[in-house]
Give the backbone structure.
Amino acid sequence: MKRWQLIFGALISTFFMWLALRGLHLQEVWGYIISGDYRWLIPSVTVYFLAVWARTWRWDYMLRPLKHIPVRRLFPVVVIGYMGNNIYPFRAGELLRSYVLREREGVPISSSIATVIVERVFDGLVMLIFVFAALPFAPLPDDSIRAVVTVASGAFFVAIVTFFVMAAMPTRFYALAEWMGRPFPPKLTAPLLGFLHRFLDGLESLRSFRNVLMIFFTSIVIWLLETVKYYFVMQAFDFHVSFFALMLMNGVVNLATTLPSAPGYIGTFDGPGIAVLTLYGVKEAIATAYTLALHAALWLPITLLGAYYMIREGMSWSDFGKAMEEGSE
């Protein structure tokens, strides 16, 4: 990572954490944290790993036009990638899992990166659906969330339409790129065109309506399971909101984590999560304790498992650097 990226991410995280913690009595927050009934973390972590398994199946489904890889072999790759997202900024783990996939299965990085980006777009669409579906049942006292969702809806709509067009007309899109590159030296355009060709191969799963439906349905299952995790963690604390409110919190939080931040989505996860709960009348200290505990329960288990798989694969931290260098193969 370039230094400016690290500084920029750290500043955004600091800003969100300041918004979340200003005016709070941290001793009161700590009191709620240590009094939580953390037996509820057992079912919450179990449900979360079911969601990770579903993510792995979805990725397998998207990779099948390139290579069919059994889910049991793909699962460690996905977990290593999520560990990378948790310890490096700017979602570097997405590139890491594509790098690991190439090393293990021979799938070009640029092709698998295309599937990862499509995953993120579908995740964003499902998050927006969660927000819009939850608002009639768990209305907010102001329109701040609606404004954010409206902007995000436009961005994700443009992204998904672009990918569908690229997937439907790969030859024409590639020819257009060749035409646009003619004024430039071949030494510059050849690597970019090669990357684009493999990237378009990675979009092949979008050329089938059945595939798109399966990816969309799986994405909904994944995020419903994650909301169930939110529900289980809530049982450890002395407050209650509806499942629809947790759906909305899940949607807003995960839309916010698409912003650049420090490693582990510090601030971009916590600030919006606390804000949504307080809008539903949850005491700010309890909302903060719950959100921090939820963040830890999402971060720690998969990071530890990812580190285990990384060691088992004979990888070292230098592989992160190799993944960055070879991302434009």
The two ends are 18 Å apart (CA to CA). Residues 3-325 form one domain. The mean pLDDT is 86.
